[in-house]
Amino acid sequence: MALSSRGTGTAAATPDRPSPGRGLLPLLLLGNTAMYALYVGVAGILLALQVERVDPADKVANFGLIAGVSAVFATVFNPVAGALSDRTGRRNPWILGGGLAAVPAMLLLGLADTILLITIAWCLGQAVMNVYQAALTSVVPDRVPVSARGKASAAVGLGLPFGSVLGALAGAAFSDDFRTGHLVFGAIVAGAAVLFTACTRERRLPPRAPLPVRAQLAAFAGALRDHDFRWAFIGRALLVLGYFAVSGYQLYILQDHTVLPEGMEPEAAVALMMPLNSIAMVVSTVAGGWLSDRLDRRKLFVGASALLSAVALVIPAVSASWTAMLAFSVVNGLAFGSYMAVDTALVTMVLPAAEDAARDMGVLNIANAGPQIVAPFVASVVVSLSGGYTALFVVAAVLAVAGALAVRPIRGVR
Fold this sequence. Notes:
Radius of gyration: 20 Å
Number of helices: 16
Number of strands: 0
Strand content: under 5%
Distance between the termini: 32 Å
Number of domains: 2
CATH architecture of the largest domain: Up-down Bundle
CATH topology of the largest domain: Growth Hormone, Chain: A
């Protein structure tokens, strides 16, 4: 999974582009919901349980290795698939191909019974899912006029909380049957891909050659030379690193750190926590974006949201109770939803050059995807050295505070 702000080099939609039609936005919501359901249900629940069953003694280290290696595949395949769809000038074939390929990839994952096979299968799963994700992400700039981008972004953004709830509930339901569970998630994505491509018309765009690697590296270095953009990049990277270091190990935290009520299984606890987290995220995303617009203050909301995330992480560090985990889930959802909504708005205001906006938003995506690669290794090292998860919460809280402080040097935005 790669949280994406990518620009693929497509021509941005212009204000006079025809309306996307009533059907596109619900289909974007459906497509993103299916994608996040697989990411949460498979990576967050089924994969963790599968790794534990194969090698319970080294589950933390093994899960960190699998998550880290597969994140590299996600980071590579996302821009590669985007560049390939740019060259063809079409998105629907890539959405359909990636979605349908999720079924055999999930079948292979369900059959894997060693750490090596699980790693290979999940890397393939990440590869095909990022083909799907890259093409789906490009639909908004391709087909939606600027005047409707806000509604389209909301439809895309709501896919995360809706998909998280669906993924948690379905993952918990199939926690004792990995093979069927993996196939169900693959079928959900495939069904969404078929429905999306069957119900949306696509106008072929002029093919565009991908930017040479040397030019891409020069663009990356050039964007980070800008003072405000560099600090926005650093702040995002720090917060995302802390967030994924903890969220990736959520099931193991509930198994080995949290004192659950008698009779409650960790998978059931995830299925209860995720809706609470998602509701909080939806509320804070809407409220944070609206208030930051009304008050014309971005740095204040970004910094406060990052600090609130640090507060949330301290709660389970000082208490291993189930009540503390519920409080963490709600407060962290409020913090992360507001942060992502307002920080994205802040970034658009500090882009180095308007004509390179899509390219620079792609550079920013490294601050999303890069920490996701590092996070599993950081988490496994911290947990292994400290012998528990309290230190992981503390480290993540420190990263969140650092992310809050990183917005202070930004000069061009209030």
